[in-house]
Design brief:
The protein is an all-alpha fold and 155 residues long. The protein is built from six helices and no strands.
């Protein structure tokens, strides 16, 4: 099952962790993390919601949970290995900011809880979310993350 849910929250978490490592000012890092979510979703990618109509809600919930946990795990491994001076609590805050658009829509998408902000955010995200099926959707995101990590290490 893990192979089906690798990128959505994971990619956003990794980008958020890199932002936390490189930008210590939360007044800059938090808005940048939210903007990075939109930029990452515009780039063609695969996520657990790709072909979601063919999956049960239970399967989507499990895959999303694995994705979130994997994202935090990989982000903290990366931070401790590549950017060891980064504050773990600050990293957590920036990761949440980078995933925030998905957190806002989660009650609507997974539990059909229709509150105005979630519904509006869900519709907005569908407008810029560019999906690409496996394997290229996963390969694209891995390449983008590797590129961002290399840039972060160089600068």
């Amino acid at each position: 099952m893990l192979r089906y849910s690798f990128m959505t929250a994971t990619a956003h978490a990794l980008i958020g962790a890199i932002i936390a490592a490189k930008i210590p000012n939360p007044y800059i890092a938090i808005p940048l993390a939210v903007i990075s979510h939109v930029a990452a979703d515009i780039f063609p990618h695969w996520d657990s919601g790709t072909n979601g109509e063919s999956k049960t809600k239970q399967r989507l919930r499990i895959e999303a949970t694995i994705d979130v946990l994997l994202g935090f795990l990989l982000s903290y491994i990366g931070i401790f290995w590549l950017f060891p001076n980064t504050d773990p609590i600050y990293t957590f805050i920036i990761i949440i900011a980078s995933q925030s658009l998905d957190w806002i829509t989660m009650p609507y998408y997974f539990f059909n809880i229709k509150y105005p902000v979630a519904l509006w955010m869900y519709k907005m995200q569908k407008g810029f979310n560019s999906k690409l099926d496996k394997p290229w959707g996963i390969i694209n995101q891995v390449l983008v993350i590797v590129f961002i990590i290399i840039l972060a290490k160089l600068f």
